[in-house]
Design a protein that fits this description.
This protein is an all-alpha fold.
Length: 531
Amino acid sequence: MPKKRSSAARSVARTAHVTSPALALDTDQQPDVGPAKRQWLWTTLRVAALAAAAATAYIARDSPHVLGLSSRSEDPPKSPSQNIGFMAQVLQKSQGQNICKPEGFVSDTYSDFDSVEALNHRVARPLDKLVHTKFFRTLKVDLYKPCQLWRTEGSCFQRDCIVQPLDASNVPAAWCAETVDQNSFGPFLGSFPRQRPEYTDKDFAIVNDETYGDGLWVDLVENPERFTGYAGAGANAVWMSIYQDNCFGVAPYLQDTAGGWGSQLVNIDGKSMPFVQPPHKRRELAPFLENLAEEDRGVTLPADVPREYRVFYRAVSGLHASVSTHICAEYFNATSEQWEPNLGCFISRIGAFPDRLQNMYFNFVLLTRAIQKMEPYIASYDYTTGVVKDDRAVQRLIPKVLKAVRKAGLVFDDSELFLGSDGHELKTEFKENFRNISRIMDCTGCEKCRLWGKTQTLGLATALKALFSYPDRAFRGRFTSLDFKRNEVVALITTYFQFSRSLDAIEMFRGMYQNIVTDWRASQASQLPDK
């Protein structure tokens, strides 16, 4: 695509055309120089005008201030959209300097971005310690449930794809106890127990009961969510199916969006998307991000979508963004053979999709509100494992998290959703679509990806269950109407921590970008001649 001439070049060309003496003369007043000489004169003037325009454009391009000209086109510069501006602000914000701090409220919530980051600073450390205790790091997950939606390509057998199981002897017996009553059997003695339902009417996900059915006990700390090297079509098909078939049609143009848990170098449509590096000059960041932005490709969430649909889409989009952020934050550098943050990965996977960045904040708010509502239940839950040190740690850390969450105030009002005559029908459809995401997670060929996909889907579903399946009064008193499994409590807190990690990673990448800008400025200063 040919480059546009600068405004300076066009200005000079016009000036030469209008003010040249020969061209300014009326044709009747011009001397009779003959056809050949007249043609030569016209050609000479045109060449001179073009040469002047080219020279001025060259100077204005590199040093526009020399001539007092702008190197931009005549059209007014395109201001970055709100989303792109927000992304640029997040990357440019530096600790202690308050540079371009993101402002305003997280969409569909009552919490602003700064308050979210401030809350994360208070809960991140106790959450980190909490998920390292035996109760929260131990989980039973059905990793070998067959995909029911499409024919899968097989499993990833790379080392980082494989989940290391936990020896059953390290699991408290109470968690493994299977209670079988007479009603679970058929009418004839000795017949097989009836199949227990995968979910109840109140569930937003497939809940694998740890005390019953298939599953593998795992240590979540020993199997962290990070880059696995898995880049099969299944990684992309998972997210494509979630967006296309389960998001109520609010995001129909995601064919070139980011991939799954793999290398992040391949889009959902299978096309390659190399990592890009951010510019060194701060003023170039917003235009740089604008070139990557999904809004120009018509993928942004429409403004007139019902709020319930937006909540669903933001939850899915935020999870997708969080997964990509974790992978970019712990990316395997094949050259150094080290796990390290990859800023280019983050810019390409999140910078190109600023809605996803905002939706990570949204999910943190959503989970915060669920924990606020569940506070009495979480505070009184039995976290006993028999490991005295860990049990004491939980007793100390849970109140710290709950106190910080309580002080956050009103961050999200769940009572505003699913109202009106179609509220019940809409909620039913919402549940069915979210449950289907649980099934989709069975279709990725990477064990570790499946582990974290199912765990975080269950965590978000537990939050939705608390918010929309029970009134506030159900979490007071003796909790007799509540039905939460142990793995739901573990998944809720674990997922809250995962989004806390994502917000920490945003600040880390922000600092990395700030270092690039600082280093560039220093290198430019060192090249200046000594006075």
